[in-house]
Structure formats: C-alpha cells, structure tokens
Write a structure and sequence with these properties.
By secondary structure, this protein is mainly β. It has 1 helix and 16 strands.
Length: 164
C-alpha cells in the first residue's frame, strides 16, 4: 500500500530544517560589473567537512505527477546543492532523521529561479525535475569516505499536488 504526500509550497523558513532555499529574493549585497550585476552573496551554508567542493553536471529524467518513490538518501560527510540549468522549478523530497533512519517524507516544489542546498546528513529524494531540460549543476563533497547512504522505504510513497 502506498502513502500519499501532498506538495507543500517551499519557503526559506519551512525548508530551513533540511537546507537552504537559494534565490534572489530580498536585498542584494552589492552591485558589481560597472553597475550591471546585482550580487546576492553567500546564499547557502555549504559544508564539505574534510573534502573539497566539487561541481558536477547531471542530466535527470523529467518525472510526472503523481510521482511514486521508494528510496531516499543522505550524504553524511557534506552538503549537496541542486541548481537547475533551466528556468524551471523541480520537486524536492526530504525527511527528518528519526534515530538514524528517515522519518515521514515531505515534498516541496521550487519555483523558476530557485535552487536548494541540502544540509549534511539530510534525508532526501533523488533529483526530480517536473519540466525543463533536466540539466542541473550539483555542488557536493569530493573526498575520502563514503558520502552516500541509501534507504529503501518499506512502502512506496506517491507525491501529488494539493487538490484545493
């Protein structure tokens, strides 16, 4: 039997327990490039522990709703940022930690122009674009040690849009 999860709107506040919402809201920090560019400075708390930052490019399959999943993962040694390379939102699935295993998953959907950074150790779903090219820049830890822990869920979960 599957468990239904409704997508919640994402805000910096409701995503904060899991990571950072990265966007250009609020005041910019400085103007650079002869006044042609606004800089929104230090928008994510990246953590690479004893490793270094790595930038990889991903080509993810576009998914549709309802979206069924039965696996979450986490990166115990460093944070991981998903930055879409198209102007499209994407599905973000997270779960609180419950004594070393994932708790009840929560689903968010970003808007165009937003990216996210998962805090180190945050349980999350796989990269899940709902539209666009499926291309993402991913910034995460490169270094010694196993920085991937996968957890199969006992029941599949299905993400749907709010029906209201």
């Amino acid at each position: 039997m599957s468990v239904e999860i409704q997508i919640q709107p994402i805000t910096a506040e409701n995503f904060a327990p899991y990571g950072d919402l990265i966007d250009c809201t609020g005041d910019f920090d400085m103007i650079i490039n002869l006044g042609k560019c606004e800089r929104y400075h230090d928008r994510a708390q990246m953590d690479f522990g004893t490793g270094r930052a790595g930038l990889s490019l991903f080509n993810a399959e576009i998914r549709t709703l309802p979206y069924e999943f039965d696996l979450v993962e986490r990166h115990p040694l460093g944070s991981q940022a998903f930055i879409p390379m198209s102007n499209d939102g994407f599905l973000v699935i997270v779960a609180p930690d419950d004594n070393g295993t994932p708790g009840t998953p929560i689903a968010f959907e970003t808007q165009a122009g937003q990216a996210i950074n998962f805090h180190k150790g945050t349980w999350h779903g796989v990269l899940t674009p709902l539209s666009g090219s499926g291309q993402f820049a991913v910034v995460d830890r490169i270094g010694d040690g196993n920085n991937l822990e996968e957890f199969p869920l006992s029941n599949p979960h299905v993400v749907v849009r709010d029906k209201t």
